[in-house]
Description:
Layout lengths: L12 H5 L5 E7 L2 E5 L4 E5 L8 E11 L2 E3 L2 H6 L2 E10 L3 E7 L4 E7 L2 E10 L1
Antiparallel strand pairs: 1-2, 1-4, 3-9, 4-5, 4-6, 6-9, 7-8
Amino acid sequence: MRRALSQPPQLSEESTEMSIQVVYAIVKAGGRQEKVSVGDVVVVDRLAGEVGDEIDLAPLMLVDGDTVTTAAADLAKASVTAEILGEKKGPKINILKFKNKTGYRKRQGHRAKLTAVKITAIK
């Protein structure tokens, strides 16, 4: 026995006219690009500075509602400000080397040093 598919609820005119203002930026931080908005906490490669210091991150793209800014001249006027929350270490990476029949074994480990930053403003 087949059931009839129910129709999705119809949206009223009031709900379709309401739009959410979305503001975010793509910034270059620690050798990578990150999508950030105000209030986000992002973990990036180690940055110079103490806990509580304010730093400026270079924006590569800025989205403000329907406006997308990618021109270098306009991005020079924009700024993304972040506050350093603390230092962290990344996951342990094990490096193992082995050669058969020769008794050669080498083990090495690595943990990347990271910085947690909180985005405070996009201007």
